[in-house]
Amino acid sequence: DVVEHGGGEPGCQASDEEAGGPGGRGTETSRTMKSMTFSPSRAPTQARAGGTDPAKKLWVPKRRGQANPKLHASPASAAEGAQKLILPEGLYCETIYKTQRRPTSTVWVGNVPIGSEHPIARQTMTTTDTKNVDATVEQVMKCADAGADLVRVTVQGGREAEACMHIREKLFKYGYDTPLVADIHFNPKVALMVCDAFEKIRVNPGNFADGIKKFDDLTYESREQYDAEVEQMEEIFTPLVEKCKKLGRALRIGTNHGSLSARILSYYGDTPDGMVESAFEFARVCRKHDYHNFLFSMKASNPLVMVKAYRLLAAEMYKLDWNYPLHLGVTEAGEGEDGRMKSSIGIGTLLMDGLGDTIRVSLTEDPELEMEPCSRLALLGTEATDMGIGVSPFVESHRNFESFEKRKGVLPEPVDEASPYDVSKALHRDGSVFSVVSLKDLENPDILYRDLGCKFVLGLPFKDIATSDSVIMPELPDASDAQAMLALKRLQEGEVCVFSPLSELRRNPIKGGVALVTSEEFASSAGDAASLLPEGITDFALQVTGEEAEETLALVKAAATKPVCLILKTNEGSSRVHVSRRFFETIANLGLDSPVIHYLVLNGSHKDDIIITGGAECGALLVDGLGDGVVIEGSEFGTEFLRLTSFGMLQGCRMRSTKTDYVSCPSCGRTLFDLQEVTNAIQEKTGHLPGVTIAIMGCIVNGPGEMADADFGYVGTVPGKIDLYVEKDVVRKGVKMDEAVDELIDLIKEYGRWVDPEPAEESVAA
Predict the structure, then answer these.
(1) What is the rounded CA–CA span in Å between residue 139 and residue 756?
(2) Contact 182/164 with Cβ under 8 angstroms?
(3) What is the pLDDT of residues 492-507, one digit of tens each?
(4) In terms of pTM, does the model score above 0.90?
(5) Mind giving me the DSSP string for 622-669?
(6) What is the C-alpha separation between 39 and 605, in angstroms, rounded?
(7) Range 131-167 burial, b when 16+ CB lie within 10 A, else e
(8) Phi–psi pair at 154, nearest 5 degrees
(9) What tens digit of pLDDT does each residue of 166-186 get?
(10) Which helix (H) or strand (E) holds 518?
(11) Running DSSP on this structure, what letter comes out for residue 723?
């Protein structure tokens, strides 16, 4: 008998004992909950048929979950019957209406347990040359002191593997028992060597047995031909599985979107489905040998691909009754605020779903600096599950986690397109950004215009590519305040729309103003919002909490005058993700197609508070296509930062591109140049190219693969030499490093993607 969905006995749960047992150092130790502070410290202690005879009948593997009978014969399966389904078909988490952690087995990495019964483990990766034992030991200790529960080290070859033994010994000598993870690509023999030293091995299914990334289209004329490659992989991988089981080591089966094998690519393409099957091939080998001390990761530089891959993986594991833990991460996220935003969108979305047991925030920065955003995300996920945040149960029938479909709100039609006051200019088709403006801001209009991202034409402010589409003014100036009224008028003439509460516009009905009408006010008018508006005001936006009765929202559908948009501002203390999901389900059932703008009120003393909370809570909605824009209010931070954070969120969710997007690896011991320095140099010269994606890779491990998600690529190949890519194809090889940035710019120009930066113009006042 063959198990149809990937092998092993149906209903087989990997218990802690089956999971390899506590292995490595400190086997009798149980880790207690660590304090999740923001700056934690730890005292040291489908086959394409191209090029084939069409007369031949080709064999192609079934979709994800096809078992290989040579690997997965299961004598017990007939007696046990059909596999048990934990959840209805298609679900990927415990519940969609509250955050509830997905139950998993425990994987032991040295003395650190990873799984749903334990705190979310935080990890990072060294950037030193692994052969430099002292430098690597020093960096591991810095990371551990900054709160890392595990630290990964790149291990390219035999010399690095030998160094790993000394690294482990020195760390023990200095009182550091932080488990170490060996990062392995291309070299199974090295994995066997370093298994003697380190507590965990990370293998990449795309290149562990298949070598360097290729883009060949493979065609299989028989099942035997396909199986032969799978059997070859098993033969190469099995010795590592057996050794890990013997020594009590852990394994991470770490799939990367950028480095899928040629076999997987030729059937599934560069897709989340392919990522899941790539990991399952290796997992089936582990299970065949009754080895369960492993976990999965599904990393991609695109947060949408990453989220979809993890959800598909979880959904498949539910079908199979597998319960292995998940390591979360957005690979090559980049640096600074953009890197943090991408990671928050990807990791935070999954944590809100109750998925994820260990996380790494990959930044193009020193590794210890990753720990603060990593700890913030871990805290966010921990609090969400501990508090069980959510709403009462509801049925969800419109959101499809297996697709990238987006709900498209219908924007208002232009009435007088030539007029800067036309309400159609209030929103942007790819996603809108609103900014909250105070009366105090109007006292310094030129600073305000710059903070809103306006460009100056003949000294007057106008919309630019990253200008706030509209502003919300909780208070309007008095009509007698000539200076403030002039500042506001110039902003409107620059095509920035002004929204203000109904009560304020009744007091001062400024031309072109859009009234913010609460759901209570709207309901009191029986859906006739026009009757509420003062003379001269013709447009309104409906402000909702997401907890309105369906009858109130039905009034919007039936109303003669439709709102410009819905402003979704959830109540303080409610779960934004779950309240909003239920709200979108309700309006979808009603057939209500008004655009929805998420209104976030975020507080904190650090910029990361805004980026990480906003990215996780609002990003979790936008990646599912639930929302048409965002406004962030934060009293501790300036208008410019909040605007840029909003645009960064839309760009990270692949909605609206307003600047160059960078896919930048976080560096490791393989990196062949100073990644931070080169990234800064490239950003300085190319940061003004919205819609262009540039990948900056320190080596070839994921470089060629991640080129597929970028327009242009800059990849280290040998010391001092760079290869330049257009998408996944290398077009200039061996470019001298001191000439490579200029060559990259020439390449962008050659392909017609370059524009010269616009010179800045001073304002009238300046």
Answers:
(1) 41
(2) yes
(3) 999 999 999 999 999 9
(4) no
(5) HTTT--SEEEEE-TTS-HHHHHHHHHHHHHHTTS---S-EEEE----T
(6) 13
(7) bebebbbebbbbbbbbbbbbbbbbbbeeebbbbbeeb
(8) -75, 140
(9) 999 999 999 999 999 999 988
(10) strand 514-518
(11) E
